[in-house]
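Deliverable D5.2: sample structural annotation.
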Amino acid sequence: MSLSADAEFHGRVVEVTTPLHGIGQHLRQARLELGISLREMARRVDVSPSFISQVELGRTRPSVGTLYSIASELGMSLDDLMPQGSEPQPTSDADRTLAGIPQSWPERPDPQGSPVQRAATRPELQIGGATWGRLTRGHDFANDFLHVTYAPDGQSCPENNLIHHPGHEYGYVLSGRLVVQIGFNSYELGPGDSINFESVAPHRLSNPFDTNSESVWMVVGRGGTPVL
């Protein structure tokens, strides 16, 4: 099993292609510190207790949506699911071009405490065909501002296991198409389309098409009272 960080073009990228050993340990520690039983955690995110146990032991891999729901219930931010360490600044010409920095600009790192999050150093979490990147310089547990990419056939969660968590979501599609299912209703969105809904409603994002789907999402108030 591996949990790798690749900073070549996108800062700290956690690509999860095998069971979550390191992340699972963090989830277990946070759950125990909060005094939440396996059964209670499973009930909150609509999975079985054995599934939660397997995730914590690093023996299975949840969808990115289920992982997000678990983290929300435990008071963990997206950054808590990523390895600790400083974020690298783009140094090569390729890095600077990808980050949108003109070659004529002098190379200089952003000062300590800068509010700017560069594209080349954006922390990202990859699970299967889904990539979630943080668009803010620092993390804020109560709110998430994300750049989300779903590869063809990528999804936030299985079709038969929709996710829910505290908060309200706002989404805007940049490119490609995205299907957003909320309860029993599904909506196909294209470039320029937007959507908003209460996150406590069971929902699922998927890309059943043959090109990548890119969108920007804001989840507000995810640090609220857990769904009981």
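Annotation notes: Residues 1-19, 84-91, 99-107, 224-228 have pLDDT under 50 and may be disordered. Residues 24 and 57 are 6 Å apart (CA to CA).
The annotation will be released with the project's public dataset once the embargo ends.
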